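Rather than argue in generalities, we have chosen a single entry, letters for residues, whole numbers for local backbone shapes, without further comment.
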Amino acid sequence: LVNMITALHRLAKLTSASSQSQICLQKEHAFQELLRSISTAFDTLEPGQVVAQSLSNLAWSMSTLNFVMVDLLSQVVAAAVANLSSFKAFELAMFLQACSKLSAVDNSVA
């Protein structure tokens, strides 16, 4: 799971300056498969088993890409709530900022 989230984080970082690149990325089958794989991995874990940094990076990546996958985001939020005490201040701030931005992208997130 950590490696898949790291891959998504790197893709978000690489395309952060270009909305055109983000649109092209989101149309790629490999990108969709990466998100499905991350979601499937969450299905096999208990919420408390996911590292806070990974949750923060995943939320940041989705918000940077302006891409909302509601089912995956629900899993991420549930895991974050279960791990709340393990977040460092920076990780929590980044996670909350990402969730705020995602709610602006898709009203169903709010």
User: Anything to note?
Assistant: Helices lie at 2-15, 19-27, 29-44, 52-64, 70-82, 89-105. The two ends are 26 Å apart (CA to CA). DSSP finds six helices and no strands in the chain. The mean pLDDT is 91.
